[in-house]
Structure formats: structure tokens, C-alpha cells
Automatic annotation (TrEMBL):
InterPro entries: LexA-like, LexA/Signal_pep-like_sf, Peptidase_S24_S26A/B/C. This is Error-prone repair protein UmuD. Pfam families: Peptidase_S24 (PF00717). Residues 1-22 are annotated as: Disordered. Residues 1-11 have a biased composition (Gly residues). It comes from the Bacteria. Residues 14-117 form the Peptidase S24/S26A/S26B/S26C domain.
Length: 130
């Protein structure tokens, strides 16, 4: 291309030679709303503010895709409300009772009490910066 060329960019129409065999495998635009199922009324994105689950790989600024209709499972991460405070915690089911496992291994699990409400289970994680 010379300095006098004007154009709107490469369209592929000027290609000579063989067609790329990879052309059949090019994916179209990625729709995160569809992949993450955000059109469902019980799916919500929630941004992480603290460092409670850094050891689990959940970093401040990450976006958790939560599902308020999902059933809690042992080992899942959930949004919990305890005494009016919103927390992100890993769930554990032991000895017939639910427990909240803190992100740091040096802290003991906390039994789920009467003042604890499960708001949503985390279904996916979106990270804006790598």
C-alpha cells in the first residue's frame, strides 16, 4: 500500500492464490450474553470487590455471573447475605449442615445460621483484564 492509497481496510476480495483452509473454522462474533445465558431473568452479573476468594482464583474486579434459581452444591461459590452483609463464599455440606468456607485456608469454616440467606450460586466468571 502506498501513501496515496485510500481504502476502508482489507476485505479479502483482493486475495490471490489458494483459499485458506482455516476459513471453514472461523467463528463468528461471540455473544457473551448468549453464552452466559444472561437473558434469563434469574441470571445477574456481580462485580467482586474484595479478596475473600483470591486463593480460589476469584480476583477483585472479576465479574461473577450468578444464578438465583440454581440449587447450592458442595464446593460451589455463592453470594450469601449474613446479618445484612453481602459475602462471596464457597459452600460446603458436612455432617448434615451447610458451612461457609472462607477463601483463606487458615480460617475455619463457619456454620450457616438463621441470619444467613443464600442469594445466588455463581455459574461463571468473567475477567476483563488478564
Amino acid at each position: 500500500m502506498t501513501g496515496s492509497d485510500k481504502g476502508g481496510g482489507y476485505t479479502g476480495a483482493e486475495t490471490t492464490g489458494f483459499v485458506s483452509p482455516a476459513g471453514d473454522h472461523i467463528e463468528g462474533p461471540i455473544d457473551l450474553s448468549q453464552i452466559l445465558d444472561l437473558r434469563r431473568p434469574h441470571r445477574f452479573p456481580v462485580r467482586v470487590l474484595g479478596e475473600a476468594l483470591v486463593e480460589r482464583g476469584i480476583l477483585p474486579g472479576d465479574i461473577l455471573i450468578t444464578d438465583t434459581a440454581a440449587e447450592p452444591r458442595h464446593g460451589s461459590v455463592a453470594i450469601i447475605m449474613v446479618g445484612g452483609e453481602v459475602l462471596v463464599a464457597q459452600l460446603a455440606f458436612r455432617r448434615g449442615q451447610w458451612w461457609l468456607r472462607p477463601g483463606r485456608r487458615d480460617q475455619p469454616p463457619v456454620p450457616v445460621g438463621e441470619d444467613t440467606q443464600l442469594w445466588a450460586v455463581v455459574a461463571a466468571l468473567v475477567r476483563e483484564r488478564v
